[in-house]
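Could you help me review a protein record that somebody else here produced? Here is the record exactly as it was handed to me:
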Amino acid sequence: MAALDYLTDEEKRQHEAVRLAGATGKLYPAQEQPAETVPPPRILQFIRPAAWEGQPIPPRRWLVPEFIPFGEITMLSGDGGTGKSLLALQLAVATATAKEWIGTAPEPGKVLFISAEDSADELHRRTANICRAMGIRFADLNDLRLLSLAGDDAILAAPEKRADGALRETPLFTAIEAAAREFKPSLLVLDTLADLFGGNEILRPHARQFIGLLRRLALNGGPTILLLSHPSQSGMTSGAGTSGSTAWSNSVRSRLYLERAKSSDDERDDDCRVLTTKKANYGRAGAERVLRWKDGVFIAEGMGGGAEAQRRADAERVFLALLSEFERQGRHVSPAKSPSFAPAVFSRHEKAKGFSAKLLNDAMERLLSANRIHLKTSGPPSKSRQHIAAGPGPITYAERRDEN
């Protein structure tokens, strides 16, 4: 009989493990020795700019020109009671119904609005005011979905182990991600950061990880995300509207600040607000819109009321749509009186929707002033001509230096 024949199979495995431990210094059973694995090399998809030669340059898309770039994360901050939730809900309704929003024309699309602050009844009341002001019905809101998490656990991500450890998404985040894939919204509103974020606001890694999770929702054709937040006391005092780590502002592509307007004697006007772009990666920072609260909604001052503001926004939308069509066809239109004068040419187009050359000319001037379109020079120096091009014009070195 061999020396080990009297042992059971399990005892033989233990004996072999001890033998191997003496040879390798590691106490692993023979059948469980870990195989040394090498991760496959990562394949890097380098871009060859030379391949862009002759290719059309992708146009910059905006959900709201000047204020909210399409497919990115924008942070809207404002201290409690300024009305940022109402303003965001107005944007949601305007986007879902192709209506104007504070004198601008958002790109139409579906909207998910998630509120951790307002109850379903409060959302009902506010939406009723917005519909009345816009002249629409609840039945017109087929492309809008509201979710109230008031009083519920609304955390989307929190540290998994230690308080300063890495963030991990919660089942709620996974559910919202699934809902976004199914509904395919062009806008997702999250109200507010204080209720949705379970990490430490002043920790840079936590801020970047949370924005990274949201960016996962926005990439690859996902929604534009509007994240509402409260500024710190110092952020309100300085007028910067910031809070916590600077990583919050650094990680988003656009940041808006809504604050109460002050008169010359430093007294507060309770019905007046100022919306300002504090950060704009794809445009010029400092765009400003003065708003006034009236009958439960915000309207843009100087826009002549809801009906006139809607007509102005519609004229701008028509001008931009026709300009885009003409650019695709390689047809140039001019900002000056000529046979190719854009307002006159567009007014005769079948898609002009009845807008006259005068109304389209006014729209062109507003779009130029807002840097939503720009003038481009083409042709040789001896015969150069200006034509209108979509999107903001090139930012000069001095302007970029001023932004930074």
Q: What stands out?
A: The chain is about 35% helix and 20% strand. The first strand starts at residue 62 and ends at 64. The first helix runs from residue 9 to 24. Confidence is low (pLDDT under 50) at residues 23-30, 396-404.
